[in-house]
Specification:
Blueprint (H helix, E strand, L loop, with lengths): L1 E7 L6 E7 L7 E11 L1 H7 L16 E8 L11 E4 L2 E3 L5 H4 L10 E2 L11 E5 L4 E2 L6 H4 L5 H11 L7 E5 L5 H11 L2 E6 L5 H7 L3 E4 L3 H5 L5 E6 L7 H5 L2 E9 L11 H5 L4 E4 L5 H14 L5 E5 L3 H9 L6 E5 L1
Parallel strand pairs: 10-11, 10-13, 11-12, 13-14, 14-15, 16-17
Antiparallel strand pairs: 1-2, 3-4, 3-8, 3-17, 4-5, 5-9, 6-7
Helix pairs in contact: 4-5
Length: 334
């Protein structure tokens, strides 16, 4: 199959029109006609080779929703004509302990959609059937793409940390990930505290569902919630004063990061020991959990706030994200 796409040919390069052949469809693979594809900050990191693993030419895009147009002979759960989503991972080995345990996202031999292969800034994309997540009926496909990466990234920690509806929780960084976390936690039943350094966002953050907005640059405001939070989710990828947030945790509270902070996180041991607090992190989630999350979103009408660009305007869309102007996720339409 011939694919028309947009690819970066070098680090920090603009995306250019690019065509390639997919080759023969393997028995457990599916081909998906891309209807929409979100742009994630991870796409920027890969375009710019910030993680040192990009192979060029690179076709980014891993928040894909579309229609199955071909299936291999051994495909089990989807058929031609089904609408599916494909996120950060496009395959896993299906035979290791983690895969057999239902934690396919932790498979050490998994295949990332845009690492060493081409992603969704294209008219077609290919993946293993297990990662082609069936979309619930009545889902808004124009807004569903970012749920396949950003959405599951902030949904999984809620279950990992056993967050309860009676909990008071905090979200650090109200951007592409954080705004979705607020929406999930609000519908989970929690009291939600948002940490933001931008006072101009306060009204907007409250409208998302936060009960209170704390100015993260104000020691007085941080002190006002000392020992109050059962769970904090960090969505930022920059170094912060982590101890100032740990002090807001209640005894047995949990601090969880999904932000890819590249520098070591300086966390004092006694800040954890004296209150039996813990620090954790996670990537995305399993296919089963992703499907559950999508059903939860449809049930409660939870979607990311998106701005839509035509696929042909991909460079304009990428610059919009790079300049920090996205409010709050960007979706490309084919």
């Amino acid at each position: 199959m011939k694919v028309t796409a947009y690819a970066a040919l070098e680090s920090k390069g603009k995306l250019e029109s690019y065509t390639y052949e997919l080759g023969e469809l393997e028995s457990e693979q599916v081909d998906i006609k891309v209807n929409y594809c979100g742009i994630c900050h991870s796409d920027l990191s890969m375009i710019n080779n910030e993680w040192g693993m990009t192979q060029y030419p690179l076709v980014p895009g891993h928040e894909i929703v579309g229609e199955v147009v071909a299936t291999g002979s051994a495909v089990k759960s989807v058929k031609v004509g089904d609408y599916v989503g494909l996120g950060w991972l496009s395959a896993s080995c299906m035979s290791c302990h983690e895969c057999l345990d239902g934690s396919q996202h932790l498979c050490s031999n998994n295949e990332a959609t845009i690492v060493g292969r081409h992603g969704g800034f294209a008219d077609y994309v290919r993946g293993h059937w297990s990662w082609a997540i069936p979309l619930p009926k009545n889902i808004d496909m124009s807004k569903a793409g970012p749920l396949l990466c950003g959405g599951i990234t902030v949904f999984n920690p809620i279950l990992l940390a056993d967050v309860k509806p009676t909990d008071t929780v905090g979200v650090i960084g109200i951007g592409g990930l954080g705004h979705m976390a607020i929406k999930f936690l609000k519908h989970w039943g929690c009291e939600v505290i948002a940490f933001s350094s931008n006072p101009n966002k306060k009204e907007q953050i409250l409208n998302m569902g936060a009960n209170r907005v704390i100015n993260s640059k104000s020691p007085e405001e941080l002190e006002s919630i000392t020992g109050k939070l059962n769970f904090i989710l960090n969505t930022t990828n920059v170094t912060l004063d982590w101890n100032s947030y740990l002090t807001t945790l209640a005894p047995k509270g949990k601090f969880h990061t999904v932000g890819a902070v590249l520098e070591p996180m300086g966390i004092p041991a006694f800040s954890l020991i004296m209150g039996e607090k813990s620090v954790g992190g996670s990537p995305i989630g399993s296919p089963a959990l992703t499907k559950t999350m999508l059903e939860f979103c449809v049930r409660h009408n939870i979607y990311p706030t998106v701005e839509e660009f035509d696929m042909k305007d991909v460079n304009e869309a990428v610059k919009h994200l790079e300049d920090g102007k996205a409010r709050f996720r960007i979706v490309l339409k084919n």
